[in-house]
Design brief:
By secondary structure, this protein is α/β, with parallel strands linked by helices. The chain has helices at residues 16-27, 44-49, 99-111, 123-142, 165-169, 177-191, 201-206, 224-233, 254-268; strands at residues 9-12, 34-40, 61-69, 116-120, 151-154, 172-175, 211-213, 286-289, 306-311, 314-318. The strands form two sheets. Strands 1-2-3-4-5-6-7 form a seven-stranded parallel sheet. A three-stranded antiparallel sheet has the order 8-9-10, with no helix packed on it. Helix 5 (165-169) links the parallel strand 5 (151-154) and strand 6. Helix 3 (99-111) runs parallel beside helix 4 (123-142) and helix 6 packs across helix 8 (224-233). It starts with 8 loop residues before the first strand and ends with a strand.
Length: 319
Amino acid sequence: HLWSLGLTGVHDYDSRRCFVALQMLHQAGELRLRVVKGIPLGDLPHAVAVGLRSGFGDDFLRIGAVKLFSDGALGPHSAAMLQPYENEVDNLGMLFLDSAQILAHGQQAVHNGFNLAIHAIGDRANREVLHAYARLRDYERLHGLPALRHRIEHVQVLAPEDLPLLARYGIVASVQPIHATSDMYAADQFWGTRARYAYAYRQLSQLGTVMAFGSDAPVESPNPFWGIHAVVNRRRQNGEPGPQGWYGEQRLSLEQALAGYTLGPAYAAGQERRFGRLAPGYAADLIVLNTDPFTLPPEALFQLHVDATMIAGEWVWQS
């Protein structure tokens, strides 16, 4: 199914059972989808004990980041906020980890070669994560450790003064463009004017933030063209909320959108010299589209589909 959508690789955060299944497929020569396999925080001590590190593995199955959760989500009003939800004067959401707790986990991780991927939705959660990352960068320098490719998952809403901090600390914004159009009405209802700084992809890009685009599947469809449509148009596939899009000033170009789904994830995995480009010396991972996306009206981008998918020089799927 993922091949048919043009995906040649994924970043995955499922648990041990999934990792075992992927290893079995790989050992049998049947894993022909590249997987960067994240580790749940609860499994970090075990991973450290056996000597695993981020980047261990090969081109088809390798260890990725340690996954932490700093807050909840927008829908259940549990994303941790600096100010209360609209019309809920007592609700600031739920903060699961503050900056001191994140730093403690981060120190253990980086000392053993693991980068971090931290779920953060609300502006308070993102601030706590960014403050922790600032201190973690100091810790890495103090101990002569490399500056690892840490990331924030979702980065859904930021306080305006915090927007420059991802680029300042070299933190990857791992974002899901389809969320902007799925969540736009809820964001307006529950965050009010703060939604102006939600899913702020253009601002983050202009500030020099590296962005890796994904889907959050199975929460959303893994179809990358639906995400490309969302980030280029800031509109749903039915045209809502209108020609200007939802906070249309945050739209990105088609070139930027494509880079977000190719170069961005490769960079986040530390594999930007092997994947993410069609160039000499890079893996022969490519897709054939039914239409040149640069000739399509932007509002039709979600209709793109894949005629064939190649991974490592082998055609793995054809329509």
